[in-house]
Design goal:
9-stranded mixed β-sheet; 4-stranded mixed β-sheet; 20 helices; 46% helix
Length: 512
């Protein structure tokens, strides 16, 4: 029989005490950046066909409406402006750009422990969106969302292990001035979380102000440029195959300011993109390849995320289908194309069309989150909190999404097969000399925290225990968790001197 003395040292009481403490990051059963890529809905031939079709679209159709600065950058790099005003991209230009593009990006956080390494099939989940409503579970209704709601979402995100980054999930509808809205969005997010943040800007001229605030938060411009903890989510195209003029100018300003860029192409299959899954992916790939040429024409090697975000559409009604199987396939196929190019990439997953955090929301969020993770998508946006096809955001759903993503990440981790996990020594000990079961064995106890993901709010008690506990309800418990989080001071709050400097320079709406 195998000697188990090393595993017994310290005793059961010591192990229980150890289990009551948070696991070291490298020992957690799931963690940011785990390798996906197990699920591959596209064959190698399929990916090559999509690549060839995208190159042909860029060479023969091209993109319209580039700003004058963009025309200069792109034609200077080798693109061709036609008499119709469209910019066309010779195949050789795209291939040269792919050869020199940045293939490994670190998205920094204010706390380096939350830095995100984007390369290969490393998987990360986070928020995103521009929801205009907050889901109020207490009244089963929607209301317009504001800056405090955004700040609270950042604070909640900061405490959740499986939400790895915060991209602004909602719009501050209580601030009517666009400049002040953008500046308060930066402030509200940065003062709420130490994780990486993504946001967009309404006007190119607003980028300067945002950078001034970020330099104050970082401590100086040099410190910001060394570790930029915010990226620009940039809808640089208006599908099909048109540049978004002002967004392109925002992108140029962000590149100049040292801010990483998410190149976001968000066509609607059947409306602003082909209705077929393959066609929608092809157009998104073509548009993002054009964006990649653009970024590298401005600054070679600048960190850019290949953001193919095609969305599904219910062709009976015209409603978006963010929670559909088709959406899950769109995201998984896009992730494979990111891998085909070996580029850091992102796509949308975890969206619910359901209006409330109910059973429909659960199946919709789980389906695309699991498939996106298994496909090896680097950045899975919209992964928690989004309802009503991106129109609503829910704090309780953000918290519940942490549990959903934990289980999705366990699927991504897969099955480890080695001498220890095959467990022949355990079988021998239990079956020949032991009690005939594995409950309480040293191996079971020693690995229970390493191999298994336990939900924070999901209830696994028996009906009898559930009844004795007062029949706890999932959403009600999420509300209690939200209130407990928001009752604590945020760890991301600024030093008083920095906060005062920001408030002297900008009109900040959040109270001190």
């Amino acid at each position: 029989m195998t000697d188990q003395t090393p595993l017994r040292s310290g005793g059961r009481a010591a192990r229980r005490a150890a289990r009551s403490q948070p696991l070291a990051a490298h020992l957690r059963p799931v963690r940011p950046g785990m390798e996906g890529g197990q699920y591959k809905p596209l064959s190698q031939a399929d990916m090559q066909a999509i690549h060839n079709a995208a190159l042909e679209a860029l060479e023969t159709i091209g993109l319209a409406d580039a700003p004058p600065s963009g025309v200069a950058y792109l034609t200077g790099a080798g693109a061709v402006e036609g008499t119709d005003g469209r910019i066309r991209f010779p195949r050789a230009l795209v291939e040269d750009t792919l050869a020199k593009a940045n293939r490994s990006i670190t998205l920094c956080a204010r706390d380096p422990a939350h830095d995100l390494e984007l390369s290969g099939n490393r998987v990360h989940y986070g928020t995103a969106g521009a929801a205009v409503h907050l889901v109020d579970v207490a009244t089963n209704s929607y209301r317009e969302c504001g800056l405090q709601d955004l700040h609270d979402a950042a604070r909640i995100t900061d405490t959740l292990d499986n939400i790895h980054f915060l991209q602004r999930p909602m719009v501050c509808r209580d601030i009517t001035d666009n400049y002040e809205m953008d500046m308060n969005t930066v402030y509200g997010c940065c003062s709420g979380t130490m994780k990486h943040i993504g946001t967009s800007f309404t006007d190119p001229s607003y980028v300067k102000g945002a950078l001034e605030m970020l330099h104050l938060i970082a401590g100086s411009e040099d410190k910001w440029r060394a570790r930029p903890f915010m990226s620009n989510s940039n809808c640089f195209v208006v599908p099909p195959m048109k540049f978004a003029t002002e967004s392109c100018q925002v992108m140029e300003a962000c590149i100049e300011g040292g801010m990483p860029v998410l190149l976001l192409s968000a066509g609607m299959a059947g409306a602003t993109a082909p209705s077929t899954i393959a066609g929608a992916i092809t157009q998104a790939v073509a548009e993002c390849l054009a964006g990649l040429v653009y970024v590298n024409a401005v600054k070679p090697g600048h960190p850019a995320i290949f953001g193919t975000w095609p969305f599904g559409l219910d062709l009976r009604s015209g409603a978006m289908t963010g929670g559909s199987g088709e959406q899950a396939l769109l995201t998984a196929g896009c992730a494979q194309m990111h891998g085909f190019y070996a580029l850091p990439g992102g796509a949308a997953g975890g969206i619910a069309d359901a209006k409330m955090p109910d059973m429909q929301a659960g199946w919709e969020q789980m389906c695309s989150n699991v498939m996106a993770g298994l496909s090896g998508c680097n950045m899975i946006y919209e992964a928690a909190g989004m309802h009503a096809s991106l129109l609503g955001f829910c704090h309780e759903s953000l918290i519940l999404g942490d549990d959903i993503i934990g289980q999705a990440l366990r699927c991504v981790r897969g099955i480890e097969v080695n001498e220890e996990t095959l467990a022949l020594d355990q079988m021998r000990a239990v079956c020949l000399d032991g009690p005939g079961h594995y409950l309480g064995t040293e191996q079971t106890l020693s690995r229970m925290e390493l191999d298994h993901v336990y939900p924070s709010l999901g209830n696994r008690s028996s009906p009898k225990e559930w009844d004795e506990l007062g029949k706890p309800e999932l959403v009600a418990n999420a509300t209690l968790r939200k209130e407990a989080i928001l009752a604590q001071r945020p760890r991301a709050r600024f030093d008083p001197a920095i906060d005062q400097a920001i408030r002297e320079r900008f009109n900040i709406y959040l109270p001190v």
